[in-house]
Amino acid sequence: MNPTETKETTDTTAPDEAAEATDTTAEPTSDGHDGQATDTDQAEPAESGSDDAEETPRASSGLGSAAASVVAAGLGVVALSGSWVGRVAAERQTLIGQIKTSQGGTPAQQISAVYGDAWHTTALTNGIFALLALIVGAAVLALPQKAGWVRAFAVAGVVLGALGMIVSAGMYFDLFLALPSTGS
After folding, report:
1. Which strand (E) or helix (H) includes residue 33?
2. Dihedral angle at the C-alpha atoms of 151, 154, 159, 160, nearest 10 degrees?
3. CB 133, CB 116: distance < 8 Å
4. Angle at the Cα of 155 (from 172 to 149), degrees rounded to 5?
5. Predicted pLDDT at 16
6. Res 35 pLDDT > 70
7. Element (DSSP H or E) covering residue 11
8. Which DSSP symbol is given to 177?
9. Distances 52 to 37, 106, 149 between C-alpha atoms, Å
10. Residues 175, 168, 133, CA angle at the centre, nearest 5°?
């Protein structure tokens, strides 16, 4: 054939016949199939190491955010009611105050060292729990949720944490109850 000549081909088959001809003359693929879908091809389960399994993202069950929302609400309750950790820290501060003032001091210094420091330690500990409740609750609210109760618990944690922060700040700065004063 001359390079300047072009080869003309004409297709005299109808479009439907061409499609059938293509289906019947399909060459086998690398996996041994002839390219036609069979019932066994569709029924075969996907291999565990296939690329399709890696491409599809796994749907989150929301268990972590649900647990975190309950923890936020629990931390908020602890911030308002107090905890064992706060009580132990207050008792320690009371003991330190007694040791400091055992060798003398004015009554105002004794009250401040024995009772005031313990009161402030309790307020500080409760404030830490309140701050944790706020952080965890806000983090859960920032995530997309599936269940309405998860959002409700997270909001409860944020609200209780905010109330705990207000109460703790009031305790720490003696806004609610001031230390008793001695008559001089």
Report:
1. none
2. 140
3. no
4. 145
5. 55
6. no
7. none
8. S
9. 18, 78, 34
10. 155
For residues 107 and 182, is the Cβ–Cβ distance under 8 A? yes
In this prediction, residue 69 carries a pLDDT of 95
* Orientation angle between helical segments 117-142 and 63-81, nearest 10 degrees: 160
Q: Quick: pLDDT tens for 118-139.
A: 999 999 999 999 999 999 999 9
* Helix-strand-coil split of the chain, %, nearest 5: 65, 0, 35
- The residue whose two tokens read 């399994």 is 53
| 8 Å CB contact between 130 and 161 | yes
Please provide residue 113's backbone torsions phi and psi, each rounded to the nearest 5 degrees.
Answer: -70, -40
List the one residue out of 178, 127, 177, 89 whose CA is nearest residue 97: 89
d(CA 62, CA 57): 14
pLDDT confidence of residue 146: 73
* Six token digits for residue 4: 């300047």
Convert the pLDDT of each residue in 68-98 to its tens digit.
Answer: 999 999 999 999 999 999 999 999 999 999 9
